[in-house]
Amino acid sequence: MNPVAYLDQLAALQAAAWPAAVPRSATYPHGQQPLSEYLRAWARLQPDSVALDFYGHSLSYAELDQQSDRCAALLAELGVRPGDRVAVFMPNCPQLHITFYAILKCGAVYAPVSPLSKALELSYQLKDSGAQVLLCFDQLLPVVRAVRDDCGLRHVLASSLSELRPAAPSIPVADLLLAPKISGDDFLDFYPALAACTAAVPSHRPQLDDLAALNYTGGTTGLPKGCMHSHRDMLYTCASFVPTALGLDRDSVLLNFLPEFWIAGENAGLLFPVFAGCRLVLLARWDALAFMAAVQHYQVSHCGLLVDSAAEVLDHPHVGDYDLRSLQRTGSISFIKKLTRDYRARWQALSGCRLFEFSFGMTETHTCDTFTWGLQDDDFDLTSAPTFVGLPVPGTQFKVCDFASGALLPLGSEGELCVRSPALMQGYWQRPEESAAALKDGWLHTGDLGQITEQGFIRYLGRRKEMLKVNGMSVFPSELEALLGQHSALLASAVIGRTDAQRGQQPVAFVVLKPGSAEDAETLSAWCQAAMASYKVPEIRVVAALPMTATGKVKKNELENLL
Question: Which residue, 31, 87, 162, 306, has fewest beta-carbon neighbours within 10 Å?
């Protein structure tokens, strides 16, 4: 098959399927320059506009720019040079935003670490990245102290969230803001250190192709790998996704609670608002009451939710006490719970806007590789096929190849999803062999099963290693999880395979029931038999909870121990 003809045909199909109101090209409000320069531009154009709200603590664009300048000067004073990695071990908070832009401004490399990490996990990532300077939440100092000497950390900055708690918070505060400030002589106190620093702001200006971040993969198995992302990757992610799927402008109010150490949270909280010049309402973590109060108080117009979070709001006993009709676009992410027509209808009745699936993406591509916005008429996106993830964002291409040979497969075939994107990583940090295996001729070979339909739409079927063969038929756990998500009694589900002498493999669904449900394995099995092809029907195991990663993915390797 001729690759050029294949991609030309696919581009024509996708152009014909493109929603009328969706821009067809990436846009750059301040040109093609690093996002640290976007922050400087907005600080000049709208210095008094609010950049960030945190439970009533606010930063204007001028303040965020000035404080990140001070922090860049402090980092330089501590010996941080262009190319050095700076680790950030923080929950969502203004200090993280200040430090993130400071790191970019001084040409260093942002290396986020999950604040849920234990000592071994922190140690691994510090050693792998080579970071010698770390900013942490002061409540995490015991974890840092346990590994500091072994990891060669030269400087530790720490900060409390309690010192940002207003006397009269605007919305219910997270417990992280209630923890008392920790004192000590083995770290620098973040805000006093900024105030005391008299060094000049570094004159260095990063270039678009300079390394900007090491975003570690957050899979469910194996050691994380650092994906090397440039300033260009960050900028393109914004320029291709914000106008296409989000529609943010300077008047928008965006809410984020997704953890910002995670690539999706980095996009939603750290990048998109500064790209668009809009106001960010930041939550330290998910809380349904705080979310509803924030939407009403700040008149939030845009947000992203896990489908699980949307379901919690819909079923909350106090949901009727809040007005959520300021919402204009609410994207969703299907991890455990899957987006269904029922969830969409209920959310629209509550808020006036429709839930839509955000995107397919990977840490390797800075995520946000597809969009579904504009494909919701008559629930087309939900009824066309399970695991529908829409069309590529402008400038990104997909193809489907045979896993073994790498040969292109015809449209409609199932095979390995491959992605070519301007946001594609430079490679895995210090892993040349693994980089070469994943990156071939400018394409990322994802290891994911997928399909491009004859209309040009993309379906994500799951990890190849998760695909099951039942009586010679391919069964995709992601599809079964999507179908199970339509059962009104289920809170969550995860499907894996069990070896079966007669069938080859048997799908096994671990399910969590809603409180008070009268369903059991037998009745759920009967429902599956009525809803699914016979070879797909899973064995049902009812469990109290599913083992989860910090980013909301199921640890399926732990479920295998229960077979």
Answer: 31
